[in-house]
Amino acid sequence: MRLEIVPLIIGALIGLLGLGLIFDAWTPDDVVVKRERRRRARVERSRGGEALIGLGVIGMAAAFIGRDTWRYSVMAVIAGAVLLAWGAIASRRYIGASISNRGALRRRDATAVMGQAKAAAAGTDSPRPAVPDESPDVKADSRLRRE
Question: Which residues have CB under 8 Å from 74's CB, separation 6+?
Answer without folding.
Answer: 63
